[in-house]
Design brief:
6-stranded mixed β-sheet; 19 helices; about 20% strand
Length: about 625
């Protein structure tokens, strides 16, 4: 057990955010914390990291949070760097401070051994090398290189100072360092926001193989399905644990609710039946005993409560376009997009009723394409022509951050002055702005609330061509499911950017993919794109294998000789290291201080056996290569 919360409560003044929390983190667990926006998920993370304290209970019940001694918790909070002048690569390498210190010590010792060898230096080098291997020292450079690349940074970016990166890029750099530092408990709050699909898939694989514990707050259903094995749901201030991934949780929760509902209905029927008998016979002398027996039977029942209804409150919009466009909605011909330099060139015909999801790596031009076709950016070349009667509804991902001193009611009404007060309240109410909520300043709204307000305005205009840039970034899962349903029923045309694979599967009938080597349309949806991508990868792998074999067949005898000599030299170095380790282990086995320590002797003997097996393998390979060299000389 790394951390355990028992009967925890968090309150701010009289507002109780969480109560009765029983939460536990064990080594290696991958835990999801799910629930509606504002339910207390981030509060729980801040409680775990120590930013919040438990609230003392008035009823005197015990409440505690217990952490294992020296447990290391990693949590990405405010982005601050100690030194903004250092490079991206140097900042990321801070995650490997211990490994790099050992590596530097090994290099100094190796230089010392080469100039003036001694048994003490060899022993110390062997000890450092063992620890270096245990910490995966030989793979750390490859690990951070892959992470930097997967998060969208280039080779040139590695040498760039931290001060030269944007806010979003700085968040990614801090995130990379956090991941690679490998804390005992890794806390991740919406880790997939603003990551492209390639980065999300890399993060999935990284977390699946992560040896320590991970706690994730996320609304990305596909990501949770791939990574987690425990789910805690927060609902109405309380927390419930489920085993399995997100899909297993959703099924189990539904099944539990249905089971409790059936048991409740059955019990209520039985109580009604028994109560009827009691009322019917309680005043008849001959049946009084039987009536009393039925009454006691009711009293002895373990009453099944009616299951609480799941909090499914969400926005709703049964809207249709004000009028239909012509069949050809948009014709894009050799459209070159970009800022200082071209990012991509696109040719595409969009017809009425198409629902096209756009995916691809960050920085390849997805949002730039949308901004260009709606006229917010000039094209660098080519053409973009709309058909007749096209009415656009455009959602920009930056709208979730816009500032405005107006309240919600005035912000909406000023855009639709022809509506009555009742019509405005009704429209806002459909998007969960009811009661006093309509008087909230727009500046005070959360990202999710701002998204809802903007969608409310877009749908009120009843466009026939929706162009949406990351509309689900600030939505909880129920919000995403609602938008999926709306878009699936919508009879107009949709073009949208998203990194949420589940949302793309549900909402898109075609996929436009931005890649390094061009932009391609896959006409049969996301699953079809995955099939084609897998085939392409298989063909590329076969081609690479053939090229490698071809190159191998043209290897010259001189190259083979040099390669063999280099391997022989490396094997001789490995054999020398093995000899030093074996000598040290034998000396420790013979040491009087270890003679009575059975556990230590067993451990030493195991290490000695492993080193002797490794020595034998090196020796056999060395012997084989020496025989090959001798045979070639004789020829």
């Amino acid at each position: 057990m790394l951390l355990k919360i028992t009967n925890g409560c968090v309150a701010f003044g009289t507002n109780i955010v969480l109560s009765g929390i029983d939460f536990e983190i064990n080594k290696g667990e991958k835990i999801a914390v799910v629930g509606r926006n504002g339910c207390g998920k981030t509060t729980l993370l801040k409680l775990i990291v120590g930013e919040y304290d438990l609230t003392k209970l008035d009823n005197g019940e015990p409440s505690s949070i217990v952490k294992q001694a020296n447990v290391n918790i990693g949590y990405l909070q405010q982005i601050t760097f100690e030194d903004e002048s250092i490079t991206l690569e140097d900042e990321v390498k801070k995650a490997y401070k211990t490994i790099i210190e050992i590596e530097n010590s090994m290099e100094k010792l190796l230089a010392e051994i080469e100039s003036q060898p001694s048994g003490e230096a060899l022993t110390k080098y062997s000890q450092l090398q063992e620890r270096f291997e245990l910490l995966d020292g030989y793979s750390y450079k490859k690990e951070y290189e892959i992470a930097i690349r997967q998060f969208g940074f280039t080779e040139e970016d590695k040498a760039k100072p931290l001060s030269g990166f944007s806010g979003g890029q700085r968040t990614k750099i801090a995130f990379i360092r956090l991941l690679l530092s490998k804390p005992d408990i890794l806390l991740l709050d919406e880790p997939t926001n603003h990551l492209d699909i390639n980065a999300i898939e890399w993060l999935e694989e990284y977390l699946k193989s992560y040896k320590n514990a991970v706690v994730i707050v996320s609304h990305d259903r596909e990501f949770l399905d791939k990574v987690v094995n425990q789910v805690y749901e927060i609902e109405r201030g309380r927390i419930t644990k489920y085993s399995g991934n997100y899909s297993a949780f959703a099924i189990k929760k539904r099944d539990d609710w249905e089971k409790q509902q059936k048991e409740y209905i059955a019990q209520q029927k039985e109580i009604a039946r028994l109560s009827g008998l009691v009322e019917r016979f309680r005043y008849k002398a001959s049946k009084a005993a039987m009536a009393q027996s039925k009454l006691k039977q009711i009293e002895r029942m373990d009453i099944v409560d009616a299951p609480e209804k799941t909090d499914t409150r969400t926005f709703h919009a049964n809207f249709e376009p004000e009028y239909q466009s012509v069949r050809q909605v948009l014709s894009v011909n050799e459209l070159t997009i970009g800022y200082d330099k071209p990012l991509a060139t696109i040719s595409l015909d969009i017809r009425r009723g198409d629902k096209i999801g756009i995916i691809g790596g960050n920085g390849l031009g997805k949002s730039t394409f949308l901004k260009t076709i709606v006229g917010k950016l000039p094209a660098l070349g080519g053409s973009c022509v709309y058909g007749d009667r096209v009415k656009i509804g455009y959602f920009d991902q930056q709208m979730a951050r816009y500032e405005n001193d107006k309240n919600v009611l005035d912000e909406f009404w000023d855009e639709f002055p022809e509506l009555t007060h009742s019509e405005v309240r009704s429209a806002l109410g459909a998007f969960l702005f009811s009661g006093e909520d309509v008087f909230k300043p727009v500046n005070a709204l959360s990202g999710g609330e701002k998204v809802r307000l903007e969608l409310c305005k877009i749908f009120q205009r009843r466009p026939n061509f929706l162009i949406l840039d990351e509309p689900t970034n600030h939505m909880d899962i129920i919000g995403k499911e609602t938008l999926e349903k709306i878009l699936k029923k919508y009879t107009g045309t949709i073009l949208f950017v998203s990194h949420d694979r589940y949302f793309i599967k549900q909402a898109a009938t075609s996929v436009l993919v931005f890649e390094e080597d061009g932009v391609r349309l896959y006409p049969h949806g996301y699953e079809y794109y995955l099939e084609q991508a897998a085939k392409k990868a298989a063909v590329q792998k076969t081609q690479n294998t053939r090229e490698a074999r071809g190159k191998k067949s043209y290897t010259t005898p001189a190259k083979e000789k040099a390669k063999r000599a280099a391997r022989i030299k490396k094997l001789e170095e490995n054999l020398a290291q093995c000899d030093a380790i074996i000598a040290r282990l034998k000396a420790e086995l013979a040491s009087p201080e270890n003679m009575s320590d059975y556990i230590r002797l067993t451990e030493l003997q195991k290490q000695l056996s492993e080193q002797e097996e490794l020595h034998l393998a090196y020796l056999e390979e060395w012997d084989k290569l020496m025989d090959e060299s001798m045979s070639i000389r004789l020829l």
